[in-house]
Amino acid sequence: MSADHELHISGLTVGYHDVDVLHDVDLAIPSGKVTVIVGANACGKSTLLKAVSRLLKPRAGVVMLDGRAVHRTPPKQLARVMGVLPQAPVAPEGITVADLVGRGRHPHQKIVARWSAADDAAVAEALNATDTAELAERSVDELSGGQRQRVWIAMALAQDTDVLLLDEPTTYLDVSHQIEVLDLLAELNALRGTTIVMVLHDLNMAARYADHLIAMKSGEVRATGTPASVLTAEIVQDVFGLDSVVIDDPVSGTPLVVPRSRAASSTPPVRAEHDAPRPSPR
Amino acid sequence: MLVLAAASVAIGSRPVTGAELWWGLAGHTDTIGEAAVYVRVPRTLLAIVIGAALAVSGAVMQGVTRNPLADPGILGVNMGAALAVVIGIAWFGMWELDSYVWAAIVGGGAAACFVYFVGSLGRGGATPLKLALAGAATAAALSSLISAVVLPRPDISDIVQSWHVGGVGGASFEAMGTVVPFLAVGGVLAWVSGRWLNSLSLGDDIAAGLGVRVAWARGGAALAAVLLCSAATAVAGPIGFVGLIIPHLCRLLVGTDYRWLIPCSALMGAALLIAADIIGRVVARPEEIAVGIVTALIGAPVFIAVARRQKMRAL
Q1: Closest listed residue to residue A196, CA positions, set A29, A27, A34, A4
Q2: How confident is the model over A84-125, as pLDDT tens digits?
């Protein structure tokens, strides 16, 4: 199992050019859990993830991992604890799956060191965990979207970190591949105790897979907590400006957000989290 | 490779006998044939190091810019180095290879920075196509600047002309001694940067996530590329296309891992330049065609083929 890691964000302000994208964000990420960040487009979710992973420098505030500011941690040392998978990564033409996954070993290698047995073992384990071992010699270009995303996750696993940040790992995937990828991450969290922080677009997927949910709007955190406490009709209205009914997901029992169409939104929102499922008002 | 090197010593614009070959290699210069063999030895060694340097420089440039069309010639770095050398000859009376090398490195570095800056302007940053266009335009401009410097100076035009076409014919062991330290530093830096290039090829964000200091890695690799091709240009003039075609050939042979790609490029680049030099000596007997012209004849069709492939986006 992974070691516990304290990940705290305090007073974080991040911006591009003259515009602040995040204002004074305070958060604590629970160790060993799956945390999902949700929010409307351009609310700063990806920016938050980039600031946490040291890809963006904060204007103010700090991201602390185990009592040390990530921006002051040597990059290689940080990369042995925290892995990052950006949105829609592009693989070099003609690279094989095994080669791509092997590149996740970079932070564990010295400048001139050779490939070690530990590297081999980590790559093999990552391929097995993501069910991509039989693809190892294939070229990444030839794979389907779902397979390709699993290969990228395998690369992040080969990095062998206790904390894994993912920016919309399900972008461009159809619904069955989305489930495939999210199940894989949930399994990883359950088996290895990896702390997972990811941005997701789909509220219902977020509700289903998150232990801890962070709802953001215009660069601020509006609500945090369990999916049941965050995904209420009021908060959905506040964060997304969307009129909806929240019911229990008949499969997982987690909240299920059922949007009303814009045409029907003149009626006041109904609180229905604990009501029996009812037909959508479309 | 060894066969090519042997062929390069044995074959030339002047046919030699077996005995002449032997005595020439042993250092005798009594007959013309022996003398010819004697000068072909440093010439072959120079072709090896220059070919290797240019090919590795091209491989590293392709990695740094994630651009399959990158090459010391196409990005204008060679021309920058060449202009600096020509200016040195014309205005500062440089005669020493030492000073050529330094001038070439400054010129090549300046051209590289300029092309990267121009290519990054506008939306989308330094896309492959914009970089190639910026490089080609810069190379053309630098090339006319070279003419502008040389034309009013008939006294230097012969020196510049023979140097500029690109040749390894004037090789001597002294010349090699001067450039080899620069090439060695560039080569070691290129070899070390192979791992950085592997990470950078996955994108800057992933490279940073893997613990690479992206700006430093890119700068270090670019410095290696500029050192290698500028020093090569200083001795042999601007030789194009070796840095373009060899890395693509090696990708077919050893895949996308830069730790293999860089040594493979060195080997194949050396082989190509020796072969091009032999062809140049043989096809126009008793005259010689400079090696830079032969590589351009081989390289231009390959450039078109690479540019036409649609999958070039994602290096």
Answers
A1: A34
A2: 999 888 888 888 999 999 999 988 887 666 678 888 888 998
- Compute the half-sphere exposure of residue B204: CA atoms within 13 Å on the CB side of its CA: 13
Question: CB contact, 8 Å: A104 with chain B?
Answer: yes
A19 interfaces chain B, CB cutoff of 8 Å: no
Q: Is B59 left (phi over 0), alpha (psi -120 to 50) or beta?
A: alpha
Structural domains of chain A, ranges and CATH numbers in brackets: 7-230 (3.40.50.300), 234-282 (no CATH)
Which of A55, A80, A96 is the closest to B208 by Cβ?
Answer: A55
Residue A209 · residue A34 · CB < 8 Å: yes
One-letter amino acid of B92: F
Residue A12 token pair: 């974080």
Exposed/middle/buried for residue A33 (C-beta within 10 Å: 0-12, 13-18, 19+): middle
Q: Which residues pair with A39 in a beta bridge?
A: A216
Q: Which residues of A touch B210 (CB under 8 A)?
A: 79, 103-104, 106-107, 159
Q: List the structure tokens of B161.
A: 């002309």
Where do we find the tokens 């160790």? A31
Cβ–Cβ below 8 Å for A86 and B205: yes
Please tell me which residue of chain A has the smallest CA distance to B213. A75
Tell me the residue length of chain A. 282
DSSP B40-64: HHHHHHHHHHHHHHHHHHHHHHHHH
C-beta atoms surrounding B46 within 10 Å: 28
Q: Is A57 helix (H, G, I), strand (E, B) or coil?
A: coil
Interchain proximity B208–A78, CB inside 8 Å: no
Q: What is the pLDDT of residue B29?
A: 59
What ipTM did this prediction achieve? 0.80
Q: Do B29 and B38 touch, CB atoms closer than 8 A? A: yes
Structure tokens at A23: 């204002």
CATH architecture, range B2-309 = Orthogonal Bundle (1.10)
